[in-house]
Amino acid sequence: MLTALFLGISYGFTAGISPGPMLGLLITQTLQRGWRAGNLVALAPLITDLPIIVLAVLLISQLPASALGWLAVAGGLFVLYLGCETALTAYRYAHGAAPSQALSSPIPAGAASSSVLWRAVVTNALNPHPYLFWGTVGAQLLIRNYEEQGTSGPILLLLGFYAFLVGTKLVISFVVNRSRHCLQGPLYHLVLFLSALLLIALGLWLFAEGLRSLL
């Protein structure tokens, strides 16, 4: 049982700190809207991953390779859109808008939270990496631990994985938010713009990755 928990912790921690669309989105949303927004991004996998895991265990091995390619293309385009929107926010702030006014649409807190969570859910749902992990390594680990330890094996693996996947991202969001209060004037604009470039680069990478698998 401890082996399943250790495997879950190891893979969850690695996934939590690995550069990718979700990490880029977490940083940009924390910079723009604060720790609460970063928390929502960190929690998004808890909403999107259950269908992915079920699909991986039951069906993903039977899907054509092109399915993940098209998913990567769609995900890349969406992340590109998020990066361009963040760059626009940085541009508005650089030209005199306050950080709260620089957001593309000033909206109430509840609606803003829904918007952040929606973006995070869509980003993760269109990100091919959860599908690749659960469709290859993850599904095999779940099945093998079930065969060796019964239901407790997969449960411990999933608990360890998501505790450290989400926990790592919550810590990153906290650190970014604390740094955010130290960022003023041109420095804030620069960090926000660099975050936008990160999202754009990740979007292009996802898009190119999808095209390579389709060609």
From TrEMBL:
It is found in: Cell membrane. Keywords: Cell membrane, Membrane, Transmembrane, Transmembrane helix. One of its GO terms (cellular component) is plasma membrane. It is a multi-pass membrane protein. Pfam families: LysE (PF01810). GO terms for biological process: amino acid transport. It comes from the Bacteria. Its main location: membrane. This is Lysine transporter LysE. It comes from Thermogemmatispora tikiterensis. The lineage of its organism: Bacteria, Bacillati, Chloroflexota, Ktedonobacteria, Thermogemmatisporales.
